[in-house]
Each structure stands twice: as structure tokens, then as C-alpha cells.
Amino acid sequence: MAKITYIQPDGTEQAIEAKTGWSVMEGAVKNRIRGIDADCGGACACATCHVYVDEAWREKTGKPSAMEESMLDFAEDVEPNSRLSCQIKVTDALEGLIVRLPESQR
Questions:
Q1: CA distance to 4, 33, 46, per residue, from 20 (Å)
Q2: Residue-range definition of the domain harbouring residue 54
Q3: If both were cysteines, with which of 15, 23, 46, 50 could 75 make a disulfide (CB 3.0 to 4.6 Å apart)?
Q4: Which of 50, 33, 31 is nearest to 102 (CA)?
């Protein structure tokens, strides 16, 4: 399990424990994190689980695949640290991960 902190655009934080093997999106959905709609259920076919990965965690979460980059084209307010949370798998190495939600997903 890994502790993940989701930060809303207004600064509100919600920390959850996510099981190893889940995606960061699954952890959000199962814990009712506001702003992670996950309309496609994690199939990388929408951009409703867009997050900003905290700079300290960018290397550990890896780079987006070509498919993920294509889907990010549909997201609003994309930044260099934008990721689809369905594509980030929870591992023990992500203990303490911090992600921020875009204003557009409020």
C-alpha cells in the first residue's frame, strides 16, 4: 500500500491508502476523491482523471506513453507534469505521492 495525497485546486488535501497494483485513479474513485470522474474506467480513453504530478514525483511516476499523451490532448490546462491517473500504477516506491487536480475538473 502507498499513501497518496490528492490536492484540490482550492488547496484542500485528502490522503488515502491505495493498494499496490491499483492505479492512482482507482485509489481516487474508491475513496470518492472529487474531480476524478474516470468516465472510461481506466482504459486511457478519456481525460477525466487528469492530474498534475508533484515535481518531486515526476521521475518515479515515469513518462506518459504515446497513447496517454494523445489522450492528454483532450484535457484542459495541460502542463509538463500532467498525467492521466489511470496510467500511474501504485507501487511501494510511490509512498507519499502527491498529485494536484486541475481547476477544470472541479
A1: 11, 18, 23
A2: 2-105
A3: 50
A4: 50
Return the closest-CA partner of residue 53 out of 39, 68, 66. 68
Q: What is the pLDDT of residue 106?
A: 77
Average pLDDT, stretch 30-54?
95
User: What cell numbers appear for 88 in the block?
Assistant: 500511474
Mean pLDDT of the chain: 96
Domains of the chain: total: 1
In Å, how far are 8, 48, 65, 85 from 25, measured between CA atoms? Answer: 14, 10, 16, 5
pLDDT digits (tens, 9 = 90+) for 58-95: 999 999 999 999 999 999 999 999 999 999 999 999 99
Q: Return the C-alpha cell found at 105.
A: 475538473
Rounded to 5 degrees, φ, ψ at 98 are: -125, 125
- Tens-digit pLDDT profile for residues 24-38: 999 999 999 999 999
Q: What is the CATH number of the domain that holds 59?
A: 3.10.20.30
